[in-house]
Write a structure and sequence with these properties.
alpha/beta; 2 domains; globular; 298 residues
Length: 298
Amino acid sequence: MIKNTIIVALVIVLFGAGFYVFMKKPTEGTNTPTSTEDVQSQEGDSKEMEQKTETVIGSSVNGNEITAYHYGTGDNEVLLVGGIHGGYSNNTVSLSFDLIDYFKNHEDEIPDTVTLTIIPVLNPDGLETTVGTTGKFNASDIPSSEIKKVEGRFNANGVDLNRNFACDWQEKAIWQNKNVSGGSSEFSEPESQALKSYVESSNPAAVVVWYSSAGGVYSSNCHNGVLPKTKELTQVFAKASGYPAKEDFNFYEITGDAVNWMAKQNIPAISVLLTNHTDTEEDKNIAGVKAILGLFAN
């Protein structure tokens, strides 16, 4: 009798221990860490996501990606844009990649309160038309033919992207003394749509867009006056870089301009025109960008 009682008790104990182990077993397919190595691996993946520095914000008519590069983690985003005129203003693309290299290696110069975002090539199809690539290129890739350079000003639909934004937009636009296409409607082009979507979602504290060539810093305005912060951006960039400060671009009438559309959205924005179509004037522009970053340091 006692022997049978002992056997029953052992069976109960063993059954209970097995049930406990079964209930504690991780569910198949879950990500529950089972070792210190697993925990460290998951933490590493999390940090990699946090430190991601590239975002594809859209694509061109020909399907080429438009990429934004991010440095710093502050709440105030300063957005820099190059290559809106593709291969025609290819030095704005070279400058943008110079800025990427500089701030990637000098991220400590970006205030803790700032995120710096750089879109080096808004018009990758136009750049490819002129230099044969949609990214970094060599000086030897730039053709001597002015016709080939001018062809690269437009996207693959033949639209001047800086005539496709919603400020005084017109289908038939002007560049210098030439007629150019502003697109079939405001934001008809995927490249301008990409910048629009990014700006509307991120709401940057300041925007700088590079063009060539006139050598100056120009305020944005879309019939609502120059914003006080835009005036400050213009003066600060001009003083640091040595370019002259201009309240508006008055060489000829511009419709559908990107920075003027930003002014319409009450976003402080300036155009920086390089002096010619060849030089990047890197030192001047790094000084100007650093001065803009300093405005948001506190």
